[in-house]
Design a protein that fits this description.
The chain has 93 residues and is an alpha+beta fold. It contains 3 helices and 3 strands; from the N terminus they run ββαβαα. A 3-stranded antiparallel sheet has the order 1-2-3, with helices on one face. It is elongated, with a radius of gyration of 14 Å.
Length: 93
């Protein structure tokens, strides 16, 4: 799938696949995010991927701000291990 490096199809369903920031690997106990986009349609998957990428970018930017302020370790201790992402239709995983 040229151009969309984080879009993966497993069976008939598309998924987002991306790396977990190195400083959060121990917290999430994994190196990659693997999130179902809940569609088998390529165009819908691309739309959901764009939406999800924005959320992940915002999460990483906030993480970097918190780390710079020294609050990241406190947040990592209290934050659930499972990240929740909102889909374009308002559902959450």
């Amino acid at each position: 799938m040229p151009g969309l490096t984080n879009l993966v199809r497993r069976g008939a369903t598309y998924y987002y696949r991306g790396r977990v920031p190195r400083d959060l690997v121990d917290h999430y106990r994994r190196r990659e995010f693997f999130v179902s986009l809940k569609t088998s349609d390529r165009q819908q998957a691309e739309h959901a991927l764009a939406h999800l990428s924005i959320q992940i970018s915002a999460f990483c930017a906030a993480k970097d701000r918190f780390r710079a302020s020294g609050l990241m370790t406190a947040i990592a201790r209290t934050q659930p291990r499972m990240m929740r992402f909102e889909y374009p239709d308002g559902q959450q995983n």
